[in-house]
Amino acid sequence: MISHGGTGRRVARAAALAVVLAVAATACSDGGGSGGAYGRGTTTESTAPPVTDAPEGPSGPMSIEDLKSATGGASAVKESDVEVAEPPTGPAPVDNVGETVITITDAAGDVTACCVMVAASPEQRERGLMEVTDLHGYRGMLFVWDADTGGGFWMRNTPTPLSIAWYAADGSFVSSAEMAPCEDSDLCPTYYPEGDYRFALETFQGDLATMGAGPGSKLTVGGDCPQA
């Protein structure tokens, strides 16, 4: 979940929802680089109940225009020309979320492209990947905002260790963190980025490195996931 506070951050909401991102699959391909995967959503100060309703927000494949609107015209949004070798193996495991291709160019210039789910609305970011145990071939979830934010993430009700990478509107790497599982507790720690960001990518813990998502890397967002 996402924790917000301070200048440029939204106040933490009373009814929190945690997000679980589970098994990373093989939807990434190399364009001269490597691949990896996974995700979660927004913090609170109270017990997070089970989620039964699909979150409101953009759903299905997102066009460049959709992504530009959802990200406040972020320059990182551009069509990818790197082929994704393997499509998702089934429908998105979370109802009513977006879908797109992300491309990560690492510090050495190696490029990896993969399909991810997109959480663009407050409801989608709060819902995240709670209760998900199979990603159906998606490599993770990309959280996007229409303006820069600085809020942190926590792991309440999230049993799987995750990695997170934050990126600026121009796709430049901000920072990353390794996040430990936490039960339904107000004492779960919050993980903060080292600066403001426009995008947050969650994967299985350790998979950011295989995707090239580290210092000096560059993110681009946009493209059509291949169909199974």
**Anisotropy-based shape:** globular
| Beginning-to-end CA distance, first to last residue | 30 Å
What level of helicity do the residues show?
A: under 10%
Provide the succession of SSEs.
Answer: EEEHEEHEEEEEEHE
Which class do the helix and strand fractions yield? mainly beta
CATH class wording? Mainly Beta
- The radius of gyration is 15 Å
Number of helices: 3
Mean pLDDT value: 78
Q: Which residues form runs of ≥5 with pLDDT under 50?
A: 4-27, 29-52
How would you characterize the largest beta sheet? 9 strands, mixed
Under CATH, the topology is which? Jelly Rolls
The fourth-level CATH homologous superfamily is Protein of unknown function DUF192
Write down the domain tally: 1
Strand content: 25-35%
Q: Total number of β-strand segments?
A: 12
Q: Which architecture name does CATH use?
A: Sandwich
How would you concisely characterize the structure shown here?
The protein has 228 residues and is mainly beta. It contains three helices and twelve strands; from the N terminus they run E-E-E-H-E-E-H-E-E-E-E-E-E-H-E. The protein has a single domain (2-9, 18-44, 57-221), classed as Sandwich (Jelly Rolls).
What does this structure look like?
Mean pLDDT is 78; it is low at 4-27 and 29-52. This protein is mainly beta and 228 residues long. It has a single domain (2-9, 18-44, 57-221), classed as Sandwich (Jelly Rolls). The protein has helices spanning 64-70, 122-127, 207-211, and strands at residues 2-3, 28-30, 60-61, 98-105, 111-119, 141-149, 152-154, 162-167, 173-179, 190-191, 197-204, 218-221. Helix content is 8%, strand content 28%. Strands 2, 3, 4, 5, 6, 8, 9, 11 and 12 form a nine-stranded mixed beta sheet that branches.
